[in-house]
Design goal:
Blueprint (H helix, E strand, L loop, with lengths): L3 E8 L5 E4 L7 E4 L2 H21 L10 H7 L5 E7 L16 H14 L3 H13 L1
Antiparallel strand pairs: 1-2, 1-4, 2-3
Helix pairs in contact: 3-4
């Protein structure tokens, strides 16, 4: 599951573009250009969320865009550019039918990659839909 978060972009005269996320206090970054600021912000958000997941912290739901616009200070610009990395969701048990030779090959590949059969199937599906 992916989520989109609002970012606030500020630019004062003779300064870089500053970016912060209302849903993640303390996650701030900047760049000389909007493109650089956007790249830095995406990296900062991804790293912060990764750390939260590693620490077992809950990831907040995104603030609705309308609410973010209503709460923005005069002169602030809002961007909707930032997508989270894939967030874990609930695993669901499924029953599938697969040729026995393919199943043995999948199990061997899963072992080679150091994962389970389910892990391999999930990984291959993620790669296929990117």
């Amino acid at each position: 599951m992916q989520r989109r978060y609002v970012a606030i972009v500020r630019k004062a005269r003779r300064s870089h573009y500053g970016v912060e996320f209302p849903d993640f206090p303390g996650v701030v970054t900047a760049g000389r250009t909007m493109e650089e600021a956007a790249a830095m912000a995406q990296e900062a958000l991804s790293l912060h969320i990764k750390g939260m997941l590693e620490d077992g912290e809950a990831i907040p739901e995104p603030t609705p865009a309308d609410k973010a616009f209503a709460e923005a200070e005069p002169g602030e610009r809002l961007a909707f550019l930032f997508v989270t990395p894939e967030l874990p969701s609930r695993a669901v048990r499924v029953n599938i039918t697969v040729d026995e030779h393919l199943l043995r090959a999948a199990d061997a590949e899963a072992a080679r990659r150091g994962t389970s059969r389910s892990g391999l199937i999930s990984e291959l599906i993620r790669e296929a839909i990117r």
